[in-house]
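Quick one: structure for this chain?
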Amino acid sequence: MKLALGIVGLILVPPLLLGGGAALFMSAASATTASPQCESTVDTAEVAEAVSKILDGADASGIHVEGLDLPEVQVPAAQTVVATGVSLHVPARGQVVALATAMQESRLRNLAGGDRDSVGLFQQRPSQGWGTPDQLHDPVYASRAFYQALLKVPGWQQLTVTQAAQRVQRSALPDAYARWEPLATALQKAITATLPGTTDSVPREFTPAAANCDANDEVSWGDIPEGQVPKGYTIPASTSPKARTAITWAMQQLGTMYQWGGHCTAPRGPDPMGRCDCSSLVQQAYAHAHVGLARVTQDQVHTGHAVPLGGPFKPGDLLFSRGSATAPEHVAMALGAGLAIEAPRTGRPVRIVPLTSMTVLAARRVA
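Got it. Here's what it folds into:
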């Protein structure tokens, strides 16, 4: 797996044993050695300030983070790693392991190639069963694959960062990850502070239960392919203009993948954080209708007017589920005809589902 360094130098590492190890190569063009300095301490305040500025869209040309030579690229990549970990319930320690691994393997860059067939942030190898090249070039998929492998390691939380990383990656340099632990820890803390509240960040599997229905809910839609509009569905004529605009925009995002903490401003763009989670989907949908919503479900549940759970729900109503009525963990938007649109959870796309697939705990009408 090839490391991408911002400087020309001599880089030396034996071949890796399996698909996740760090592989380094001798540069014939230079006789100097370029390896990152192993820092025992990191200025966490400086890292937090830099992370906040970069994720707020500031010009990164004047921002310096010790250990990151392209922070405008590496910080968003780190954000994807952390957000994916949070969405999978991975503890902070596991997120640090993932960040340290990605720093060693790719310098937190989503590389198109590397040693042999290595790909992506973690330089995982298709030939070792990590996934297809296209999948591994998706930072969210690559992060999920790493976390899933980490969680299968017995007692990983009692291991050092470098030991845990090595159990997953099987690197030819098993001690190489340790140098990145201080910076990885600082990045994890700084990025976590920028993410929205966790109340809508802990996706759970649906528990099918009876939901309240509107007047058109007798329609049987059968199995609805994920990311598609059910055959025969149209936005009801009685839908208010603002709700119609919001629904239309939300439906344009069908098929785009869920990203916990994603702001939903570019769901089809290259940045995973431009994708939608449940609350940002409805927030951005209504933003296009010039209706302001809060960012997270616990705040959105206080927006607009309460709708009795006896219904009927109108198209555009916000439907809250999971958790409790006062602290819901998920939100969807009613479409009428017994349907709702949602960004469900990590690994699944924005989709249309029947109301019978959820237990509605609270409903609000905002337009």
